[in-house]
Design a protein that fits this description.
- This protein has 5 helices and 6 strands; from the N terminus they run E-E-E-E-E-H-H-E-H-H-H.
- It is of the alpha+beta class and about 150 residues long.
- The protein has 2 domains: about 35 residues; about 100 residues.
- The strands form 2 sheets. A 3-stranded antiparallel β-sheet has the order 1-2-3, with no helix packed on it.
Length: about 150
Amino acid sequence: MKCPYCGEENTRVIDSRPADDGASIRRRRQCDKCSKRFTTYEKVEAIPLVIIKKDQSREPYDRSKIEKGVFRSCHKRPVSVEQIRNLVDDVENEIYAMEKKEIASEVIGELLMEKLKVLDAVAYVRFASIYREFKDVNTFMDEIRKIL
């Protein structure tokens, strides 16, 4: 790490401790040349994730879009905000565990539906009706029969 005072590249870590509730590490450093001290923060680099939509267009991953869809599906259902956040956290963890830079929106939709099916059947059907774009009542009924 370069010294911000003299530009020397040889610096020593003299203290290291967690910061931001464990999300980063605060390091106290000292320059070997000028002996001045400074602080650096080390964070894990997040993999930038791009979503490939149904029309093959691409856009940056946005957690809030997933949350909005799940919240809408769970409207007036006995599902707490905490349960919704945990569901979205689980899906997000699975997505990042795939270690891909691009992921199809269909993959995310299927993961969400699996989790919603367990959480609340009505919320699942609501989400599926929008996600799968049911064209008629028969395809809608087929989906309901799957969960019964």
